[in-house]
Amino acid sequence: xxxRPNILxxxxxxxxxxxTAESIFKNDQRFSIKSAGVSPKSERKLSEKDLxxxxxxxxxxxxxxxxxQELYAHLELPKIEVMNIPDEYExxxxxxxxxxxxxxxxxxxxxx
Length: 112
Fold this sequence. Notes:
The protein is an alpha/beta fold.
């Protein structure tokens, strides 16, 4: 695996949670990051290209992982980590930033 992994962060509509993750980590030198949503109403809808680009996918909820596995069953998917972050935060909410930082940094420490 590459020393600088590609991280894809996915939530429902790519409005709050995954966009916050992309915003707070976009200048991080340890990895590249993109965000997307699984809903057809997403600001930036998840694509096959995103999944082929990613080394690791972080999803907010278990149903996001299930949806990806269902829609893209024909692909060899990267590892999908569920962060269990409910849709109760606004974009760039302080608590959300803390949760995302903690979970993503912990994962990176353990795996890279």
